[in-house]
């Protein structure tokens, strides 16, 4: 049961961040609004693309680690990658986003990623 939960949560998180990255690459303005800090109409294209590529890459790496290396490698990856949503929390707060989005989306995501790491270490 623990193994199923650990792998299931890790796969869900990897696919979710892969989707978020792809969404930033395809519809960057809408994705930025969903992130919690609206983008300038004509000034943030490169940064939105960077965010999309970063998140897409996190998803690909996570899936590859889980598929080809195993739970322990994925656990270390999750532990390290939790830095991103923690940083996103601070970015949203510093740039005019709401506390609800900062904590309800980004900080909560960091907590879930850390739970995923703990479950994977326990497998």
Can you walk through the features of this model?
The chain is globular and about 45 Å long. The protein has helices spanning 2-26, 28-35, 45-68, 71-81, 83-94, 99-122. Helix 1 packs antiparallel against helix 3 (45-68) and helix 3 (45-68) runs antiparallel to helix 4. It is built from 6 helices and no strands. The mean pLDDT is 95. It is 85% helix and 0% strand. By secondary structure, it is mainly alpha-helical. 29% of the residues are buried. The N and C termini lie close together (10 Å).
List keywords for this structure.
123 residues; mainly alpha; 0% strand; globular
What's the order of the H and E elements? HHHHHH
Instruction: Work out the helix count.
Output: 6
Largest sheet: none
**Radius of gyration over C-alpha positions, nearest whole angstrom:** 15 Å
> What proportion of the residues is helical, as a percent range?
over 70%
Head-to-tail CA distance between termini:
10 Å
Class inferred from helices and paired strands: mainly alpha
Secondary structure tally: strands? 0
In a few lines, what is going on in this structure?
The chain has 123 residues and is mostly helical.
What is the topology?
Blueprint lengths: L1 H25 L1 H8 L9 H24 L2 H11 L1 H12 L4 H24 L1
């Amino acid at each position: 049961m623990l193994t199923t939960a650990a792998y299931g949560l890790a796969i869900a998180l990897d696919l979710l961040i892969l989707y978020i990255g792809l969404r930033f690459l395809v519809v960057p303005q809408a994705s930025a609004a969903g992130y919690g800090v609206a983008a300038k109409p004509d000034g943030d294209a490169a940064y939105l693309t960077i965010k999309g590529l970063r998140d897409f890459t996190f998803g690909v790496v996570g899936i590859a680690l889980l598929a080809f290396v195993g739970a322990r490698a994925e656990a270390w990856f999750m532990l390290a990658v939790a830095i991103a949503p923690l940083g996103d929390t601070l970015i949203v707060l510093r740039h005019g986003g709401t506390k609800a989005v900062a904590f309800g989306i980004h900080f909560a995501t960091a907590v879930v990623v850390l739970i995923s790491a703990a479950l994977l270490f326990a497998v």
